[in-house]
Amino acid sequence: MTSTSGLVDRYGRTATDLRVSLTDRCNLRCTYCMPAEGLDWLPNDKILTNDEIVRLVGIAVEHLGIEEVRFTGGEPLVRRGVTDIVARCAQLSPRPDLSVTTNALGLAKLAGPLAEAGLDRVNVSLDTVRSDTFKELTLRDRFHDVVAGLAAADAAGLRPVKVNAVLMRGVNDDQAPELLQWCLDRGYELRFIEQMPLDAQHGWTREQMITADEIFESLATRFVLTPAKEPRGSAPAELFAVDGGPATVGVIASVTRPFCGDCDRVRLTADGQVRNCLFAREESDLMTAMREGASDEELADRWRVAVLGKRPGHGIDDVTFLQPSRPMSAIGG
Question: pLDDT, tens digit, for every residue of 298-314?
Answer without folding.
Answer: 999 999 999 998 888 76
